[in-house]
Amino acid sequence: MTGAAAAAGPVVVCRALRKRYGSVVAVDGLDLEVRAGECFGLLGPNGAGKTTAVEILEGLLEPDEGRVEVLGLTWGSHDGELRQRIGVQLQETQLNEKLTVEEIVRLYRSFYRRGPSVSRVLQMVQLESKRGSWVSRLSGGQKQRLAVACALVNEPDLLFLDEPTTGLDPQSRRQLWELLAGFRARGGTILLTTHYMDEAETLCDRVAIVDRGRVIALGTPRELVASLGAGHVVECTLAGPSGLGATGLAALPGVTAASASGRTIRLRVTEPHRVVPALLAELDRQGIDLAGLTVHQATLEDVFVARTGRHLRDE
Amino acid sequence: MSRREYPTHPLLELTLARLLEFAREPEAVFWVVVFPLALALALGIAFRSTGAEAVFAGIVEGPGASGVRAALAPASGIHVRLLRPDQVDRALRDGEVQVVVLPGPPPTYRFDPTRPESAFARLAVDGALQRAAGRKDAFVPREQRVQVVGARYIDWLIPGLLGMNIMGTGMWSIGFSIVWARTRRVLKRLAATPMARRDYLLAQMLARLVFLVVEAGGLLSFASLAFSVPIRGSAAALVVVLLVGALAFSGLGVLVASRARTIEAASGWMNFSMLPMWVLSGVFFSSAHFPAATQPFIHALPLTALNDALRAVMLDGAGIAAVGGELALLSAWAVVTFVVALKVFRWT
Ligand SMILES: Nc1ncnc2c1ncn2[C@@H]1O[C@H](COP(=O)(O)OP(=O)(O)OP(=O)(O)O)[C@@H](O)[C@H]1O
Ligand SMILES: [Mg+2]
User: Which of A87, A178, B2, B35 is the most exposed place for a label (fewest CB within 10 A)?
Assistant: First the structure.
């Protein structure tokens, strides 16, 4: 299966992809390239156009404009061959509730020319003990692993996962991550979407940050975070209204950038241990009270905030 | 279930999945199997032969009432009630009495001539009163009473009910299963696999044929045991008619569900397509009553063809060749609806 693909060119290429729904431009000139054997992540907020983009790449939606190539083939002329070689997990698919785990896997396995046995698939996703259970009796995490199992029944060269862990508890997320690590160890390529930055950082070799249908940043998680030019973020919330804005604090030593939203001011800093005392001294000097202060290592979330001024998840 | 590590042909797996899903849905089983039997039982009892119809006559209270009452007493099968004048119209309307006698001379008969039982009651009451008044019958006729198996209303009704069931359960079960799969995005997920799209639709139809055995078998055995409804034609002819009929309606079900995005929309289209057939295709009364101009349309409907073929086989003992026209029409419905459905089917 997958080993041969590793040497060849990119597994997914799309150029200038565009898709409109009435007046909404869901995908607005998207360019992507996924390399063989990597795990590539599309990270973006709700409505960024991730699902639309992925479904176009899966051959389920027609783009209005743009070119798509998957495994060196194109949709419309090699559909049968392509479908044999990809695995798909859709966002929020509900499988037939009255069928058992085993029956579902066997049904999906029947559509493919090759692939592992039903038991082997169940073993991969650790659902052997649930073999005879109806889908309706599975937990959220088990359902999600079953959905991934259906995407693995053909040992695909390329696996598409649309928000594989949304809504799962930490333990279920970790189980799924391990399962995907196993798939990659066998040489598979993954294209996944998520709006969890930690998921992107843990799983993905490269990440494209998507906003309003376009890629606004691309690189390894490390590169993206490094592009902030600061390893840490200091966030302070002021107790009351004041004339102090972001600019007033940008001049502090060690601050690379500052931004404000409401009473919260975010400083990107290289050396927090120097900035924090200076910040406190400055606030004290101006007689401003603090309601909260946090310091954390810069993440992909900060990259998103830095480029858009908004958060990935509106909480 | 046995452990089958590798699946067989996708068409078989899809059919099996559909069968299992159906069998595990107690409500679906009720509507397909139990409900038709209950309906047949209720209608069979309502329409079973009850012997000669009784006549219910009212007499308006007053001076001549007891005379009329005495005159009607010897007549068998006429039940008499005394009514106050203000009760007359209400009793007639509600069918408590079919004719009211206002004592004469001469007596007045108050009745609704558009109701067959009213017109009949008027004749019976008139005959009895005339005889009591001294009229002599010119002759006493001999009677031949026809009450043979195969010529009763229930015999005619059961094939129609069977046809109606095959239509109803076929369309509802297929329609719901497809629209359900579409709203939960199961269809989209399937479309992302290399599954041949016709296999999915064919599996719906094949699974339907398996339910048919239970459904038709149940209704026919019940009708035969409870009402001695005959099956004069060969089992082979009956099976062929049932299969082809079920295929025609499952094709129609697939077509009606091919684009609907919600259960409500699908239900609307189902009712829209079935309503004309409930009324026109001769389930409860013969479609011959409709104007001649509508007959070509009525005979193009699949339920008309199915009911005609079922009655021909069950009641007249027709063979496959004799119902060839109906079978050809039903096959055409099955093929055309399937092909069109496959073309226009919405997978997302
Ligand atoms: N079928 C549709 N009809 C109309 N608008 C749509 C349709 N599908 C998506 N959209 C719109 O296109 C935009 C992108 O949606 P999409 O589902 O691709 O976003 P997403 O990044 O996957 O979001 P989420 O993280 O919430 O899954 C949204 O504004 C959405 O409302
Ligand atoms: Mg999405």
Answer: B2
- b vs e for A112-131, b when ≥16 Cβ sit within 10 Å of the residue's Cβ? beebbbbeebbebbebeebb
For position A119, what pLDDT does the model report? 93
Domains and CATH numbers, chain B: 3-40 (no CATH), 55-145 (3.40.190), 153-344 (no CATH)
Q: What is the mean pLDDT of residues B283-304?
A: 90
Ligand nearest to the CA of A44: 1
Q: What angle do CA A153, A154, A156 make, to 5 degrees?
A: 115
For residue A315, what pLDDT is reported? 47
Per-residue pLDDT of A216-225, as tens digits, reads 999 998 888 8
| Interface-testing mutation among B1, B8, B24, B189, with chain A (most A C-beta atoms within 10 A) | B189
* Shortest alpha-carbon distance between residue B242 and chain A (Å): 28
The count of C-alpha atoms lying within 13 angstroms of the C-alpha of A159, restricted to the half-sphere facing its C-beta, is: 31
Torsion of CA B56, B58, B59, B60, to 10 degrees: 180
Residue B192 to residue A99, Cβ atoms within 8 A: no
Q: Assess whether pLDDT exceeds 60 at residue A7.
A: no
Q: Using the predicted structure, report yes or no on whether residue B144 has a pLDDT greater than 80.
A: no
pLDDT class for B150, splitting at 50, 70, 90? low
Residue type (1 letter), B274: M
Quick check: helix, strand or coil at residue A97?
A: coil
Nearest to A99 among B10, B20, B194 (CB): B20
Q: Angle between the A101-109 and A140-152 helix axes, to the nearest 10 degrees?
A: 20
Higher pLDDT, residue A104 or A92 = A104
Q: pTM for the full model?
A: 0.81
